[in-house]
Amino acid sequence: MQPCRKSLWLALSASWLLLILLGICPLFRLAVPPKPPPGHPQGWPHWLDAAFLSSFSQPGEPPEDAPQLPQAPRGSSCSWGTCFDTSKCRGNGLKVFVLPLASPTSEAPQRILASLETSGYHTPNTSEACLLLFLPSLDQRGVCQPLPPHWSAGKNHLVLSLHPALCTHRGQVMVAEASPSADIFRPGFDVALPLLPEDHPLQGGAPGQLQQHSPHSGAVWLAVAEERGGWRIAGIQDSACPWDEHCDLHPRPQQTQLGEMLPNATFCLIPGHRPATSHFLQALQAGCIPVLLSPRWELPFSEVIDWTKAAIIADERLPQQVLAALREMLPGRILTLRQQTQFLWNAYFSSVEKVIHTTLEIIQDRIWGASAHSSLLWNSPPGALLALPTFSMSPQDFPFYFLQQGSHPESRFSALIWVGALGQPPLKLIQAVAGSRHCAQILILWSSEKPLPDRWPKTTVPLTVIEGHRKASDRFFPYSTISTSAILSLDAHSTLSTSEVDFAFVVWQSFPERIVGFLTWNHSWDEARGGWSYSAKMANEFSMVLTTAAFYHRYYHTLFTHSLPKALRTLVDETPTCVDVLMNFLVAAVTKLPPIKVPCGRKHPEPAPLAPGGPGLGSETQPLGQDCINRMVAEFGHMPLVSSRVRLDPVLFKDPVSVQRKKYRSLEKP
Amino acid sequence: MCASVKYNIRGPALIPRMKTKHRIYYITLFSIVLLGLIATGMFQFWPHSIESSGDWSVEKRSVRDVPVVRLPAESPIPERGDLSCRMHTCFDVYRCGFNPKNKIKVYIYSLKKYVDDAGVPVSNTISREYNELLTAISDSDYYTDDINRACLFVPSIDVLNQNTVRIKETAQALAQLSRWDRGTNHLLFNMLPGGPPDYNTALDVPRDRALLAGGGFSTWTYRQGYDVSIPVYSPLSAEVALPEKAPGARRYFLLSSQMSVHPEFREELEALQAKHGESVLVLDKCTNLSEGMLSVRRRCYQHQVFDYPQLLQEATFCVVLRGTRLGQAVLSDVLQAGCVPVVIADSYILPFSEVLDWKRASVVVPEEKMSDVYSILRSIPQRQIEEMQRQARWFWEAYFQSIKAIALATLQIINDRIYPYAAISYEEWNDPPAVKWASVSNPLFLPLIPPQSQGFTAIVLTYDRVESLFRVITEVSKVPSLSKLLVVWNNQNKNPPEESLWPKIRVPLKVVRTAENKLSNRFFPYDEIETEAVLAIDDDIIMLTSDELQFGYEVWREFPDRLVGYPGRLHLWDHEMNKWKYESEWTNEVSMVLTGAAFYHKYFNYLYTYKMPGDIKNWVDAHMNCEDIAMNFLVANVTGKAVIKVTPRKKFKCPECTAIDGLSLDQTHMVERSECINKFASVFGTMPLKVVEHRADPVLYKDDFPEKLKSFPNIGSL
């Protein structure tokens, strides 16, 4: 029995031990005053009488019966509402008078003046102007120019200095200067300009240097701007702050001086409170994401450009965090930031002309108020200089924003048939086009010397006749009678089948920002002549689509008429054969993409001349007006055309299947 | 010993053998132990309720019982607000340290009642709105109760309405806060600033470097990038539920509903009404209201009485004039009603103007242009007005409707300044949910044609068909633009052939061995991929000519944001079954390309591996099918664009083409593929695939032109 009892005792004590172990914890918990468990903050108390608390404002309070009269602007603070008189700008929009230059010694203001004079803003008449532009400069002795006579406290004056302002006039005058200090900058009134290098091109300008969307696998991760100019490369593993001299005592071998070269890096770190050089623009052009540390200057055009989409602005006091954030940045974000730098560079910064036009466009937007460019138009391709708010206030109406708006191009088109000088009514063509189920209307642009025919063929769609002025540029006038986004531009001599029209239109719906057409030309650099030339020969590539049979968006008529320099429109009126080239230049400059070619069924007959002496299409001869392409390149500042090697055919085009299965049969007839 | 243990295990069997004395003793002992165990068990569950009831007693207190703090008359007063303050000069960002979630931590001082030397309270302890505001912060992710970890401090001293506080004493109360330090990183909320006679546009309480979230800033008092402009909360928001009204033309074109308007402004408004008649309505407060009617909720025009704010829904545009203060609560009412505010208050900083695009929801008219208001508004197209109405209502819903919304938006703005690289984008702030849902932001939006010199990387997924694999490698290596070949060896049980056995090709060939036989291995973003263009190719695709592959690469260069592939497929809506159906017949349309042979941007590999919605990736791996359909869905969804099918139809060796193996197998395959489409469409919540009727051919394909002069002559040969 004895061993039995012993074991019982053992079991009992074991049970007691268990009991104590289990029991002691809660007992402890009871003994210690209750404390919130960690990770569950106590928070703001829930007051018992919360419901009975009184409101912060009682009805009838404050006494509102004695409001103040408008306050006069105090000190140097000016805002758009108080210091700019928009009444002068009504009707004409923004008209700019450039105050005469006192000392025509320096060249730069002269060039700016010349570029302004060709733009639509300029007026030679002070009384007509709503903005007086003053280009300050230093005379030989380095003294600021005296203020011009019209000054009158500077109301409606804009002082535009592309370099950090030396002669600061504030007060009621608007100041557009390079990288202004954030302390004196008046948001919504002044305009911040980029700091341009001395040799910045006036027109055109170099395109962005990004050739691919994602960073090259061999690209440097981080480049740091040097104070004297140039860039230094920092490795990804550098844990020490790479911009601080003190923590970088042992320069690594891979850190080399890049000199003036533009950086091929993913991030470009720009320390310093004041921009000493044009590092910022260099990075932008190179597609290197600018990382600005506590800039004390206003970013260029910050009123309209959303810089968070293209640059990183961070606090210099948190270097580790900034570096860590850069390292951990998701590839998708890097992709978007890089692409945005390129878009912004190309749209607003690549030339002096663009910088000035952007400045004026910002002021114009302020005048327009509610009908100004929306943020979407400023911050997505092709940019606000190419998306005119006069065309429409709804982004869906433009050919560029369907994706962002989640909308689709409409499924109808308007056919615009140009009847040239000796033209006959294109009866067959009208029937073919009207046969398309997508056709909404037919417009005849009658530019023939012959009288208008009395009768037109009966069609299922409305037919309207517009009398033209026998000018080539008439073809691209934004006629108010055009009711659809899509235009099928035709020449009376074109021969198209309904099936061709249908297919081309369906393709256009996938590419609403491009020209979709049948006959193509290709451009090339002619070594022998030292210039550009173009040819209508059959080739493996093309860069232009003839507008004698092409689909494109109605918006290009508005751009053609209202945004192209007058000189170019005069050029095509004088040389009508150039009109196709000009339209292709315009669309390519906007989209940066080649046009789309679709197949034409039977071999087109000897192509119709646009005007007497027009180019022979498909013939061996070179199209006439070879010179106009070079004049356009000069006017655009660069060659915008892009070549393509692709033709879009129907899915079953010439496939060995039964013709019965094919939707666009007639395209295959030999 | 051993036996007793056994007995012990048997338990009660032991008891009858013992003596009675012992039995009683043992039974008592066991009962005590049992009781003890039960009690312990009870304790284990009890304590929670005991604790929470303890919490209850701690939290549920009355505002009247908060501790009283006596402020000596000579206690220090902070400096007046420093107008030159910016985040980089007056804000101590070090306190925000590094936080992996990029979120600031906010501490709230506990509530005290401040009295002066004479025992007279400094202010009302707390207003209902300020209590709501602090509760909202406390319930948010920003809150911390650890003062040492906090980056932003919110005093519980209520300064929402300057008229309810004694300025000097409140300032003294602020200065004695434990972490005041000249107000650094302290945030004050104020909606009604200034007091008679001159009504300053910012809080008059000296606050040194403290940030001010103020309603009614003017350009002269607002420290751009430092202060936050907030709305003046309208208590009507909570009282009256105005259901959203569809945008469109309304009964009144322009409405003025404010009660106290400066006589000069009223004159101008009445002149407008006289000129434009019915479409303009200028209301005033009611003077002849009968008993029991709330004057705040009524407006009058001559003898007509209108319900406010319901009336606002009858107007397209509503005037928001400045009164004694720039910020007006009526702005909130107007937005709630979906009426477009016409803000006439020179130099007023609109609420949250740092992030909200007010051009989309309001019209700002300078005071001196007031007489032109009507013509300015009439010049706005109807479509734009409707857009503004929608936007106005959305601003109210997101940022105005409650004190909580105002508090969280304010903290988000400050958070975005401190962690700018994690900031919320313009679209997230401004786009209404419907637009956010419908819009597509293509990750490769920049129009550019990558240089040909870059070339492409071919990725061959293989299991064990070595012979066929080697043939594919040899064929693909003939393509001029190939820059690297990557073989993904998906067989874990078998080693790839020895190096010497592989075909000798002119470009680097790399073999990657995978850990598991998964289809998603084909779309992994391998470090070895150095080019942007990727050619995914199966180990049995030997029928593509070098010309065809090279041309495919050229097409990809022109359309780098799309899937460019050879065999095309289509999805169709099956009206009988009411679901999607997979189609591989010779159709006139294409909506997918098979990734057995397709070019695409390498970024889509990253997206497939890390950003595929829902469980699609695992589902595909588990079913060993449809990885290509998943890729088609992914790319179409993210770019909003259709695929490009290249070159004419060829006889491809693929499961659904080998009808020889038996019709039933073919049918099972088609059913499975259809299932995939339906599954993916439900996960994506939409059908992203786009149907097109075109394919890409070389410019001179089948044209009457000498073959030898064509760039890509060998295309479409069977």
Automatic annotation (TrEMBL), chain A:
Question: Locate the Exostosin GT47 domain: which residues?
Answer: 112-328
Which Gene Ontology molecular-function terms are recorded? glucuronosyl-N-acetylglucosaminyl-proteoglycan 4-alpha-N-acetylglucosaminyltransferase activity
Which range is the signal sequence, renumbered to this chain?
A: 1-31
State which Enzyme Commission number(s) the record gives.
Answer: 2.4.1.224
Domain Glycosyl transferase spans what residues?
A: 413-653
Biological process GO annotation list?
heparan sulfate proteoglycan biosynthetic process
The subcellular localization recorded is: Endoplasmic reticulum membrane
Q: Which reaction does it catalyse?
A: 3-O-{[(1->4)-beta-D-GlcA-(1->4)-alpha-D-GlcNAc](n)-(1->4)-beta-D-GlcA-(1->3)-beta-D-Gal-(1->3)-beta-D-Gal-(1->4)-beta-D-Xyl}-L-seryl-[protein] + UDP-N-acetyl-alpha-D-glucosamine = 3-O-{alpha-D-GlcNAc-[(1->4)-beta-D-GlcA-(1->4)-alpha-D-GlcNAc](n)-(1->4)-beta-D-GlcA-(1->3)-beta-D-Gal-(1->3)-beta-D-Gal-(1->4)-beta-D-Xyl}-L-seryl-[protein] + UDP + H(+)
Q: How does it sit in the membrane?
A: Single-pass type II membrane protein
Q: What GO CC annotations are associated with the protein?
A: endoplasmic reticulum membrane
Quick one: which pathway?
Protein modification; protein glycosylation
**Record's keyword terms, sorted:** Disulfide bond, Endoplasmic reticulum, Glycoprotein, Glycosyltransferase, Membrane, Signal, Signal-anchor, Transferase, Transmembrane, Transmembrane helix
Main location per the UniProt record = endoplasmic reticulum
Q: Which domain of life is it from?
A: Eukaryota
Tell me, in a sentence or two, what this protein's role is.
Answer: Glycosyltransferase required for the biosynthesis of heparan-sulfate (HS). Transfers N-acetyl-alpha-D-glucosamine to the nascent HS chain (GlcNAcT-II activity). Appears to lack GlcNAcT I and GlcAT-II activities.
Protein family (similarity comment): Belongs to the glycosyltransferase 47 family.
Q: Quote the protein name from its UniProt record.
A: Exostosin-like 1
Q: Which organism is it from?
A: Nannospalax galili
Gene that produces this protein: Extl1
TrEMBL record, chain B:
Q: Which residues cross the membrane?
A: 24-46
Q: Where is the Exostosin GT47 domain?
A: 101-380
Q: Give the matching InterPro entries.
A: Exostosin, Exostosin_GT47, GT64_dom, Nucleotide-diphossugar_trans
Q: What class of enzyme is it?
A: transferase
Does the keyword Ion transport belong to this entry? no
GO MF annotation, one:
metal ion binding
Q: What is its main location?
A: endoplasmic reticulum
Query: Which superkingdom, per the lineage?
Result: Eukaryota
Please provide the record's keywords in A-Z order. Answer: Disulfide bond, Endoplasmic reticulum, Glycoprotein, Glycosyltransferase, Golgi apparatus, Manganese, Membrane, Metal-binding, Signal-anchor, Transferase, Transmembrane, Transmembrane helix
How is this protein situated with respect to the membrane? Single-pass type II membrane protein
EC code(s) of this entry: 2.4.1.224
Keyword hit for Cytoplasm: no
Ranges for domain Glycosyl transferase:
456-701
**Where does the protein end up?**
Endoplasmic reticulum membrane; Golgi apparatus, cis-Golgi network membrane
| Reaction catalysed by this enzyme | 3-O-{[(1->4)-beta-D-GlcA-(1->4)-alpha-D-GlcNAc](n)-(1->4)-beta-D-GlcA-(1->3)-beta-D-Gal-(1->3)-beta-D-Gal-(1->4)-beta-D-Xyl}-L-seryl-[protein] + UDP-N-acetyl-alpha-D-glucosamine = 3-O-{alpha-D-GlcNAc-[(1->4)-beta-D-GlcA-(1->4)-alpha-D-GlcNAc](n)-(1->4)-beta-D-GlcA-(1->3)-beta-D-Gal-(1->3)-beta-D-Gal-(1->4)-beta-D-Xyl}-L-seryl-[protein] + UDP + H(+)
GO CC, any one term? Golgi apparatus
Q: Tell me the cofactors it needs.
A: Mn(2+)
Q: Which residues form a coiled coil?
A: none
Q: In which pathway does it act?
A: Protein modification; protein glycosylation
> Per the UniProt entry, what are the Gene Ontology biological process annotations, in alphabetical order?
cellular response to fibroblast growth factor stimulus; chondrocyte differentiation; endochondral bone morphogenesis; fluid transport; gene expression; glycosaminoglycan biosynthetic process; heart contraction; heparan sulfate proteoglycan biosynthetic process
Q: How does it assemble?
A: Part of the heparan sulfate polymerase, a dimeric complex composed of EXT1 and EXT2. Could also form homooligomeric complexes. Interacts with NDST1. Interacts with GALNT5.
Family assignment from sequence similarity: Belongs to the glycosyltransferase 47 family.
* Protein purpose: Glycosyltransferase forming with EXT1 the heterodimeric heparan sulfate polymerase which catalyzes the elongation of the heparan sulfate glycan backbone. Glycan backbone extension consists in the alternating transfer of (1->4)-beta-D-GlcA and (1->4)-alpha-D-GlcNAc residues from their respective UDP-sugar donors.
Query: Per its record, how is this protein called by name?
Result: Exostosin-2
Which organism's genome codes for this protein? Nannospalax galili
